[in-house]
Structure formats: C-alpha cells, structure tokens
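Whiteboard transcription, Tuesday session. T.W. wrote the structure tokens on the left side:
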C-alpha cells in the first residue's frame, strides 16, 4: 500500500471521528481535522438553500521569512489547538496600487488589505458534506496582478462552490520576494510559482477533509495567474498534482510571462541592490516586468523556454479550456485625449514605431507587417476603426496570440482543448462603451464581485450570464467538458488545429471557427520569425537592425500577403 493511500485512510478515520459537518445556521462554527491539525470555519446558507462551509486564511506553508526568504516554501508545522479560519489572512507584500494601475485594472478591494511576509494562506469554499458523500471535484485558483499585486480575498469562491465543487483560492509571494533571481543557485527565483505548487501539495494531502477529491483537481487562473497555470503545465515539478487546467487571458508564451535569459534577470537584482543603498533618496522607478518567472534550467521549475517545451511536447497532457476577452487591452488607450471618438492613423503609426523598438533587428519589416495586418483598407482613415484595430493589436500581442500558440501546441500533442472568446458587455456597464469587454471583465461573472457592476447591482441579464459562466466552468471541473449537455441549445465544440473552433460567450452563445486566424499567423509566422532571424545572412546588411536577407524576406512576405489579402 502506498504511503499516500495509507495516510489518506488513516486521516479518513479521523475525519469520521472529528469532522463536524451537520446542518447549521449561518455563521455557526464548522470544524474539520486536516493533516496539519484542526481548523474552524463557518457555514453560510445561499439563496437557493445550499449550505456552504468557508475556511479563510488557512496556512499551507511555513512563513517565508528569515532563512526561508528567497527560498522554496517549506511545509507548515502541525498544530494541536483549533486554528481560527473565520477571517482572511494577510496578503503578500506588493507594489503600491499607484505603481501598478497602468499594468492591471484598478480594484478598490486591494486598497484596505493587510500585507505581511507571512502570507502563504488559502481560502476554501465548499458545499456541506457528510462522511458518506462522494468526494467533490476541486478548483484551485491563482489570482492575477502582473506578478506584483493581488490577494486571495479579492475572489469569493462561493458561487462556484454552490454548483457542487470545492474551491481553493491561494496567495503566493509577489514582486521581488516572489521572483527575485540572481541567475544561479544563490537565488534561482520562481518562489511564487513554487508557493503555488506547495498549495497543490496541500490540496493533495488535505482537501479530502473538506469533501474534495485530491484526484480531481482543476487549476485555473486569470492574467498572470493564467500564465502561472500555463507554466505548471510545462513544469516537471507540477506533474501529478492536477487533472486539467483553465487559462483566462494569460499563457506561458505571453511576452510578459517569463523573464528570459537574454533579458538578464541579474540586472534587476543589481538595480534592487543599488536602491537598497539609497535610503535617503527617492529610488528610481522599477518596471513590474523586473519580477517574473525565469528559466531556471534542468532540475528547476522551468527547465527551458516555454515555446521550446511546447514545440518538443514536454508538457503535462491534461484537458485544457482557455480564452480571452474581446477587448483585452482597451484600457491602454484610456489616456489618449478624445479616445472615445477614435484614434488617428498618424497616432497609431507613431505608437507602432515605438513598439517595434523592442525588437533587436528587422524593425522596419516588422512595423510594416503589423501596420498592414491591423489596417482596414476600406476604412483606412476612420478613427473609430483605427482605435479598434489598435486595441486588437495590443490584445493580440499580449494575450490572444500567445494563448492560441498554447492551444495549438497542446492540441497537436493530443490534448482535448476548448477555446472561448468572452464578449458579453453589461448594459449599463462600469466601463465606457468604447472600451468594449476589457481585461478581467469576466471575473465578475465567476466570483461574487457585485462591486464590479454599476451601483453594485447586476441586472437579470447579468445574473443569467453569471449562471451560464459558472455552469460551464464547473462542468469542466466535474467532467472535462464545459457542456456535457447543451446550454441554451448550444454545445461547445472542441478546439483542434484543423477547426480552431471556439465559443463566443455572449448573448446568445455561438460556436465559431478560425477567430482572427490570419492575425494569429501574422504573429507566429512573421513577427516571431523575424524577431529571431539573424540579419547577418548572405545578402543582408547588419548595420542598423532594420534589414533582412532577400531569401528570408521573400518567405515572410508570402506569409504576410496571406494575412492582408
């Protein structure tokens, strides 16, 4: 008998003796016994009469302080007294909101959070169960926040749990404390990802005490949380701890997801060291991109670049659901004067010229390719059309194209995949109409975020969409299929490399194929190849980074013509 099975049986006996899961009134204490010790949460009765148990601020690892700072997380010590899990634990130390609002949407729920280095805690939401009930599927969520902000208190998992799943929402170290790296064994980095892995291990060892099955775990996340989830698909260290995954607006191949070796993570460490010696001066601003996952080599969390692992088929082959909102980066244009009336073509061209400076070579060709790919020649001087194309350009670069790359790679590896595009916009909405459906707009339909609706009051249509979203997400957790039976007469068709099927989540739900495929191929076949092509080939001039060999240019121009015709 395996150690794991033996442990599970031993604790199952204790569960029968110690778990108090009788029907109780709102707020009444609910005690469970875990492998670490007894925990006390509370019960809540939902509108439909479902009784949920909630446990807040449950520690899953030792405090990452002192000698454990900048080190992988360690197991938490056991306790004997009942642990009070009736209030949120502290969030991890993070950037001030003023430093991150240009990167992630402003959320007032982060204004009053308590922060601490001792922050490795999680929240558990689940239906009240008895010892004789079958164990329920588990959904483990990683929050977004550009690797520098966020907290598990932002998301209330009760609405998902109401559908018959156990929901776990975890903290993990952020910013320098989560992703500081010297590029060697002194401080290899990726501590935030290892915290997430430690939370998976906690789920494996303890979730049965809350009525969840350790063998039916779906990991999911949004934005940087989705990128983290995607990286767990690639990491050999995470294998065996989850059954399937959901990616919401983030992927391991997103340009911000991993700080690659060529971008010298060490320089950010050096900059931090300099700042620590300047206590009497205002330190220079540091980009949030300085703190991100890194490639830490063989034996580490991420042994190679994400797309190399994808191309080589080195990923955990589990069912995947993934998608984006229709207007991910509309918020990036919010500070352009008069943006509600559109953006001039001249402004788009100028901003595009600034954008391509990030590429070390072939910039003129890349700029021309992008300008053609995101120009509607039937409305070339229409500012509204130009603005909308500008939004799509930014969205495709940061989210949509990288996610398509992951879907294609995993589908080619034989993985069952589902793709969505979230396009539902409430009327009225807290966002101006021109912004469409921006980044993170879907979260209010999965979690109990009434503050993200106008006047805190979702309409009947909003509530209907919320029920649809939660049903599909929990269906996937339960069965691996978001629509085992049709919803509103629609069955979500799987994504394959041949069909590129997707579900448009709007009213009504609609199936489609080949969503902006030509633009996806522009990024994959032209931009990525051009950025990586050595301009010193025969026939090329490597004087200013803006030229390319005739042979390469012919091949890539053929790809470009397929995009713009």
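and on the right, the sequence the group agreed on:
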């Amino acid at each position: 008998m395996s150690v794991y099975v033996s442990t599970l049986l031993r604790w199952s006996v204790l569960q029968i003796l110690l778990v108090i899961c009788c029907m109780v009134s709102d707020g009444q204490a609910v005690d469970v016994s875990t492998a670490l010790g007894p925990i006390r949460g509370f019960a809540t009765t939902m509108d439909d009469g479902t009784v949920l148990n909630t446990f807040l601020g449950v520690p899953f690892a030792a405090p990452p302080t002192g000698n454990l700072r900048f080190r992988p997380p360690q197991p938490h010590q056991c306790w004997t007294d009942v642990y009070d899990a009736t209030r949120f634990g502290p969030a991890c130390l993070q950037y001030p909101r003023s430093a991150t609002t240009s990167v992630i949407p402003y959320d007032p729920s982060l204004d009053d959070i308590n922060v601490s280095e001792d922050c490795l805690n999680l929240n558990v939401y689940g239906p009240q169960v008895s010892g004789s009930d079958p164990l329920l599927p588990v959904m483990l969520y990683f929050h977004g926040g550009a690797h520098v902000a966020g907290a598990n208190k932002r998301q209330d998992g009760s609405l998902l749990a109401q559908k018959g799943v156990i929901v776990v929402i975890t903290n993990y170290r952020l910013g320098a404390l989560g992703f500081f790296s010297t590029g060697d064994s002194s401080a290899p980095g990726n501590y935030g990802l290892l915290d997430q892995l430690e939370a998976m291990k906690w789920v494996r060892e303890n979730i049965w005490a809350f009525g969840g099955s350790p063998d039916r775990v779906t990991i999911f996340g949004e934005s940087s949380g989705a990128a983290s989830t995607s990286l767990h698909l690639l990491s050999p260290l995470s294998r065996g701890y989850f059954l399937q995954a959901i990616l919401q607006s983030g992927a391991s191949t997103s340009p911000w997801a991993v700080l690659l070796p060529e971008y010298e993570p060490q320089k950010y460490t050096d900059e931090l060291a300099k700042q620590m010696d300047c206590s009497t001066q205002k330190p220079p601003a540091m980009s949030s991109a300085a703190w991100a996952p890194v490639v830490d080599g063989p034996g580490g969390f991420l042994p190679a670049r994400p797309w190399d692992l994808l191309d080589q088929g080195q990923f955990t082959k589990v069912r995947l659901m993934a998608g984006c909102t229709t207007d991910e980066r509309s918020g990036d244009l919010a500070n352009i004067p008069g943006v509600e009336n559109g953006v001039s073509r001249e402004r788009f061209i100028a901003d595009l010229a600034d954008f391509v400076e990030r590429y070390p070579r072939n910039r003129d060709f890349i700029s021309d390719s992008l300008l053609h790919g995101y120009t509607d020649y039937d409305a070339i001087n229409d500012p509204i059309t130009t603005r909308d194309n500008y939004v799509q350009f930014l969205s495709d670069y940061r989210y949509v194209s990288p996610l398509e790359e992951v879907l294609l790679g995993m589908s080619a590896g034989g993985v069952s995949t589902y793709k969505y595009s979230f396009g539902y916009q409430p009327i009225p909405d807290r966002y101006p109409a021109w912004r469409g459906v921006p980044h993170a707009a879907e979260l209010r339909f999965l979690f109990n975020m009434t503050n993200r609706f106008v006047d805190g009051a979702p309409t009947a249509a909003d509530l209907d969409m919320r029920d649809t979203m939660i049903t599909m997400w929990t269906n996937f957790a339960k069965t691996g299929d978001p629509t085992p039976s049709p919803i509103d007469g629609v069955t979500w068709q799987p994504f394959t490399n041949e069909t590129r099927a997707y579900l448009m989540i709007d009213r009504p739900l609609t199936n489609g194929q080949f969503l902006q495929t030509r633009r996806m191929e522009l990024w994959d076949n032209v931009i990525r190849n051009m950025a990586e092509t050595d301009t010193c080939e025969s026939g090329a001039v490597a004087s200013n980074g803006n030229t390319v060999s005739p042979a390469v240019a012919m091949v890539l121009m053929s790809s470009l013509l397929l995009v713009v015709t």
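Someone added at the bottom: The chain has a mean pLDDT of 86.
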